[in-house]
């Protein structure tokens, strides 16, 4: 039986509209192959919303997201707002949206595609087996903490890093549950040798670890974790951490697998989930058909699986990405010297064709669904 789902689409800024169009093309290919009906509606967020409506998260955008079954987002950010006050910046719209929808758990899987074993900066023998998920706390910490202020003339600024026990408990719970669908290991990342907030984080993590004795729990300081990700990437399974550390480490994971343009994410709370690639708006690439659409397409797969419960469809999208890469399709960020790079649209077509071509229903590839986090 086909499923009907409402998806709010927020293309945003920079390369956001291009990669969102790619994700939508893939959703349409899934619709056609599996007989679902996705009712898509487009809404403003970020710099375009600031220009057209004077605010980065217009009210109609927020209510459309609340009413949707899932939200698909491209990227926000525009350098022309670099000096604007916080609430007049594109990014503020995204932060408001995460907070308003209660999206406290940001799931960012990073896995090395077999065809890209030597695309990144790591030696292939070190990169081999890289398959981890960063579970990033998304509605607390420095991003939202008060007091906060900046006084450029006086040369002073303040940010605050608050966390409460319930906030830490719920994100750790997500991480432990996810680990049980994977390799049963959680690395909790903090800076407890310096930060009081991290002392609370670690104390709660230790308690949570006792409640999940079947999962191996380790603690790493964020600086050494950043190093270990490069040295021993395949030793990580689920990495759980606070908002800013998760933001930083997930970009590092992008580099490890070959390109930030490959990584998807799901932001989950109690209502509709928000699905967005990990990369930003990349203004220098915008409008040039150069952006890698795989991050956004893998995000569409997470939307299908984690957002709508369509796990077979999610697996089909992942297989299509793998198949296109196996056949040599590469965007400019991945192409090695002498190989013709595909544009955003050509790469999308190559992946959509794989979905259409795979007419038989196969078992999900081992580990794929787990890599993207089962709905909890
Ligand atoms: C991300 C982005 C955002 C963040 C920005 C655009 C606010 O970098 O999703 O990783 O810092 O969370
Ligand atoms: Mn980021």
Describe this structure in words.
This protein is 41% helix and 17% strand. It has helices at 16-34, 47-53, 59-67, 90-100, 124-127, 165-180, 196-211, 222-231, 243-257, 294-307, 311-326, 344-357, 368-372, and strands at residues 4-12, 37-42, 70-75, 105-111, 131-137, 149-151, 156-158, 185-190, 216-221, 238-241, 266-268, 273-275. The strands form two sheets. Strands 2-1-3-12-11-4-5-10-8-9 form a ten-stranded mixed beta sheet, with helices on both faces. The chain has a two-stranded antiparallel sheet with strand order 6-7. 51% of the residues are buried. Residues 247, 251 line the site of manganese (II) ion (MN).
Topology at a glance:
Layout: E1 4-12, H1 16-34, E2 37-42, H2 47-53, H3 59-67, E3 70-75, H4 90-100, E4 105-111, H5 124-127, E5 131-137, E6 149-151, E7 156-158, H6 165-180, E8 185-190, H7 196-211, E9 216-221, H8 222-231, E10 238-241, H9 243-257, E11 266-268, E12 273-275, H10 294-307, H11 311-326, H12 344-357, H13 368-372
Parallel strand pairs: 1-2, 1-3, 3-12, 5-10, 8-9, 8-10
Antiparallel strand pairs: 4-5, 4-11, 6-7, 11-12
Helix pairs in contact: 1-10, 1-12, 6-7, 8-9, 10-11, 11-12
Bound molecules: 3-isopropylmalic acid and manganese (II) ion.
